[in-house]
Sequence to fold (698 residues):
Amino acid sequence: MTDAPAQPPHDRTATDPHRWLEEVESGAALDWVTLRGTAAEDRLRAHHLFAPVHAGLREALEAADRIPLVSQVGDHLYGFWTDAEHPRGVWRRTSWESYRTEDPTWEVLVDVDALARDEDTPWVWQGASVLRPTHDRALVHLSRGGADAGTTRELDLTTGRWVPAPEGFAKAEAKGRLVWRDRDHVYLTSAADPTGATRSGYPRSARLWERGTAVEQAEVVHTVDKSDLGLFVEHDQHTGLTLLRRAIAFYAEETLVLGDDGPVRVPVPVSADASVHQKHVAVRLREDWTTSSVDRQETTWAQGSLLVAPLADVVAGRAEWVAVFVPDERSALVDLTWTASHLVTSALVDVRHTVRVHSPGPEGTWSSEDLTASLDVGLRTVSVSAVDAHTSDDLWLVTTGFLQPMELSVAHLGADASVTALVEPLKAAPARFDASGLEVSQHWATSADGTRVPYWQVGPAGLPLDGSTPTVLHGYGGFEHALTPAYDPIVGRAWLAHGHVHVVAGIRGGGEFGPRWHRAALGPERHRAYEDFVAVARDLVARGVTSVERLGCTGRSNGGLLVGNMLTGYPEDFGAVVCQVPLLDMERYHLLLAGASWMAEYGDPDDPEQWEWLRTYSPYQRLDPQRPTPPVYLATSTRDDRVHPGHARKMAALLEEHGRDVTYWENTEGGHGGASTAEQWATWHALAWTFLHERLAG
Fold:
């Protein structure tokens, strides 16, 4: 097995013969898409496993006994739900008393299917926000076909009717949002604002819009440079605090507090994430940071640490920071959430979840307590979030593992410094596939530079280590996103139930070990992520789990770029590749839709020095006509307005041009997720998994 040979310099002046496929909805491009999509469906639907896999996936996605996840606003619990009768979904609410029963009674507030029929528009739910403290109005966010660009309209929760203009607030289709300030004012951000959009296609300006006035009259409260990524607004209706998030680049952000005299910057590193809650600021560091105390004592805080201090002191420049989390070589902060009295963090230790609660004490001190054992986390992934961050110390607790279905509980925390967690189980999802005889194990592969790379293996216990088992390796490796254990009925029904193996790799570029793990594969070091991934693939073969001809790989979005590099850089290591909603043309990615916002992750192709490294992992330019490639399945969505569908289209056309084995399919809606309804999701996944059965299982 060999790595990719050095490629000759790419001629950037040459005409791309497939660029016409970037014209998303042109007649010629859609004809091309339809022809290939029809051929793909005809072949894969004829496979003996497609129908049962599709039916099984749809059954799991529409199952009535799924856990109805909710959020509390006032006296109600609100949630969005889809099922066979409501494929586009309903937004509904219930009471705590009813929710605790096996069959809650729901009040439907918005029926998206009915709205789509009435307005002849493929509406997809984007969320809603309820006005506080009256809880009688809501801003409802919808998108056409699942695109990121969406619309907003106001709903009267007492009558169940839309509030018509000019009294009601409404945002036309564009990237951006409406955010409540109070009953008669909203903050508006829109890429369609007269000030224009940023280079990445996001809003530049935030306006304060008063009810009953024309949107053109709304006061501009802040505008950012066109070269910035975008401007976003948060408003706390409890405290009246308004924050402006000026996203300079993907990993560079300024947080500003909007006061009577205009925005005031929170003086923390632009590379850090700042979370403001009531009187405190929590800052998560991506880089080392040296601060000076009031007595001029300097302290250097390590990247990946979480620091806290009073908001007033931070803004005044006299903060005495306290570290509530400091990582080591084995650990990384995953997330944080505030309750009325505490700050709760979840972290990974060797890619295994832990939970701690941190409580403010006298004179700026903080105490911490480990809740991992009392919450019975085990080898599961745990997600914690506040039930009501201003009035309660209760936490929503969602746990899941590769073989453990989702469970929902409420953890009741004590309000004092000596915290105890009383866990109240609420809902448990039933098993969606037969996990008897399956086991989960963690392994480590050694990458090209000697780095140990973790991966999870799920498959039959007592697996014959003779290379005979069809195996799929999944990865992402970007944007500091960690892959952790999660129950996936799609993988279970479509793959594990057939006695096959599924593997999840925690490669560099991800967040499995925090910022250092992510930064190790940025820009010119991107090849480290690909070396890590193929190291896992080779370790699986070396251990006898599988063989090259029975080993496939899957990836979506940045993961699509990952497996695109397996296709062109390591084709001898895989028997099949599934590449979905991918980036593939790294010469033009920054010119297509939101691509410019990711230059901090990949680099700038217009800079000759950066193009020198970018071209080494740009699959569209890297394809070697003299080197065979494994069979590949490429899929995207016409309505993806984040990662341009032209990436997948052009790669398919290029592979066809060289006579390669390529299967192409494109959904007509679904946005970057790829699908909008359970039927679409079942088709999306069934086609891909049928392809893998076809090519790996024989």
Observations:
- The longest helix spans residues 678-697.
- The chain has 14 helices and 39 strands.
- The two ends are 23 Å apart (CA to CA).
- Confidence is low (pLDDT under 50) at residues 4-9.
